[in-house]
Amino acid sequence: MKRVERRPFPALPETFPAHEALRHKLETSVVSHASVDMSVDRYRELEKPQALRKKDVVLMATVTSFEDLKHPTKSELRQFAELFSPLYTASSEEARRQAVAALSQCEQVPSSVAFFIASQPIAIAAPFLMASPCLDDDQLIAIARCQGAEHARAIVRRPALSPAVIDALVSMRHARLPAKADKAPVDKTPIAEQPATPAAVPSTQQPLSTEAAEAAQRDEALRQKIKQLAAMQARPTSDRLGLRTATDVQEALMVRFARSRDADAFATCLADTLSASRWLAERIMMDISGLQLATTLKALGMDAQEAFFILERLYGHLKESVGGVSRGEILWDSLQDDECIRRLEAWCRADRYTYADKHEMSETEQTTAAANDGAEQVTAKVRRA
Q: What pLDDT score does 7 carry?
């Protein structure tokens, strides 16, 4: 029997176009199927029983679904707050870091969750402390006081800090310096009873003094940085560029009319100062508590003593003294310059819109009436003809 030799099939040339297209198509199909299988396997974890789920996958899926909510409702915020804490506790440290980093960019994180994340160790909470817009001033101050210096340094790196937070950080920094000094041991033994110290002792104390000097330099650098941040956030009261400001003559007139308690003349002067209608000035003065007038005077940059005099003359109850301070001064000190300026601008803008619409309406009515009169005159002439 003759043996038949088997020959292999000839290999296709690598430059053959059809073969290249088929191989590229197969490779693309394999990669796409692999990626689909990976994503399916990731979400299959959610279908397993509670005991078999991977907590890391569930935590990241919860955070991802919460990120996709542009405007979460109160119920959704409450559900996320209830789910996050147990999932976070049962997850690994790497999953915790990823979840916190993702939530640091969200604009609507529940307050309880935000405070919980910010109170975690600094290795996890740092990005949230530096970037999250969901932490208010009270939470930042509480975290800095309770968690320590590392959390306070992370808070200092935020892009914007309010003056209240800056003052709290500075006060905490000053409070830590005496505490460190008190920890140094003090030798209460009389000088005569102290043993003679060898010459090598000063050399051992030299590194301690160097470290203290370096710590003082770091503290001073941090203090200067905080002062710069405070200067950027708080505008000087003398800077009135672009703001409504009462002139010296207008201030003198308002003080004069307040002294004589001429409310009518005072309202006229106030309306002229605001470049607004008399209705707005009267509406401000009708607030018997004096809050709206105090807000207006502070927004106009009036001197505090003159403002006290005006308020006490127009509103008699503000003369009453509480603890040696008049109610007018207490009311004045409780107002913030920026907030007063914003309120006054809103009042003037609303007044301008209201009376501008009335003015336009009156002009339209006059034009319509003139047109009707002209039409009647033409009709009368035609009838006469």
A: 53
Could you tell me the mean pLDDT of each successive run of 10 residues in the chain, 385 residues long?
Answer: 51 48 49 43 49 71 86 87 88 89 88 90 90 88 87 87 84 60 48 46 52 81 76 57 79 91 91 89 91 91 89 90 86 88 90 68 54 59 57
Q: Residues 6 or more apart from 293 whose CB is under 8 A from it?
A: 284, 285, 287, 310, 311, 314, 315
Whether 105 contacts 83, CB under 8 Å: no
CA 102, CA 36: separation in Å to the nearest integer? Answer: 24
Q: How far is CA 369 from CA 161, 355, 380, in A?
A: 59, 21, 17
Amino acid letter, residue 143: I
Which three-class secondary structure string do you get for 98-110?
HHHHHHCCCCCCC
- Under DSSP, is residue 72 helix (H, G, I), strand (E, B) or coil? coil
CB 158 within 8 A of CB 129: yes
Structure tokens at 44: 């299959």
Predicted local distance difference test score (pLDDT) of residue 196: 47
Specify burial of residue 118 (Cβ count, 10 A radius: 0-12, 13-18, 19+). Answer: buried
Q: Check residue 230 and give its pLDDT.
A: 67
**98 touches 126 (CB < 8 A):** no
What is the Cα 205 distance to its own chain's centre?
Answer: 46
SS (H, E, C) 284-332: HHCCCCCHHHHHHHHHCCCCHHHHHHHHHHHCHHHHCEECCEEHHHHHH
